[in-house]
Design a protein that fits this description.
binds D-malate, 209 residues, 7-stranded mixed β-sheet
């Protein structure tokens, strides 16, 4: 346990100077879920997988929701700060560089990563957001100038309507992020095709990570 999170840490092959992938699972997942995805996305990276600490009917989440797609904003704000603290504590515990953390989140995990980008833009070097929703609309759009963000979305996602993805993309564009939106025809499940697209995208950004 570090900070408020049970977690798993897998040191990368390139030593502690390599980027660290912060792996954020979807509802009902755990700290092990996205380790294989992380190994595929960036084989040389350190992998850090926290387990969401908000239970919902026995399923782990990263923040409370009031209903499907309706978030408890006060809880989201507090949990986003907890996650930011966790990154800093884990970096000093394991010796990785806190300025080289790349989030890779799916669904609920992508949503808290998006919240972190909008609230504390300096915490993440880049982000891979798989099936993210707009976590909230900030009063002031942060400065995400040049920050690489990969956002993937399914045209037939029953949980994330296309307009919601477009709203989030618009926020990132207004914030001047280096945004890539990857649409595919699937639903809410994570597909191999989008994982490959995310890996290839990360490879193009690796010099800055
Ligand atoms: C959320 O609650 O974060 C989203 O609805 C995605 C999900 O976890 O189902």
């Amino acid at each position: 346990m570090i900070g408020k999170y049970e977690h798993r840490y897998v040191p990368g092959t390139a030593g502690s100077a390599a980027p660290t992938l912060l792996l954020l699972h979807g509802t009902g997942g755990d700290e092990n879920d996205l380790i294989p995805l992380g190994q595929m996305l960036m084989p040389e990276a350190n992998l850090l997988g926290p387990r969401g600490n908000v239970p919902e009917n026995g399923m782990a989440r990263f923040f409370r929701r009031l209903a499907e797609g309706v978030f408890d904003q006060e809880d989201l704000r507090a949990r986003t700060e907890d996650l930011a603290d966790f990154i800093a504590l884990a970096a000093s515990h394991y010796g990785f560089d806190p300025s080289r953390v790349v989030a890779a989140g799916y669904s609920n995990g992508a949503n808290i990563a998006a919240s972190l980008l909008l609230r504390q833009p300096g915490r993440l070097r880049a982000a891979v957001l798989l099936h993210a929703m707009t976590p909230f609309v900030p009063e002031t759009v942060p400065d995400l100038s040049g920050k690489p963000i990969f956002l993937s979305a399914g045209r037939n996602d029953p949980i994330v309507p296309q307009e919601n993805t477009l709203q989030l993309a618009g926020l990132f564009q207004t914030a001047k992020a280096d945004l890539t939106v990857h649409w595919h025809n699937s639903g809410h499940s994570l597909t191999r095709e989008e994982a490959v697209a995310a890996r290839d995208w990360l490879a193009t950004k690796s010099a800055g990570l």
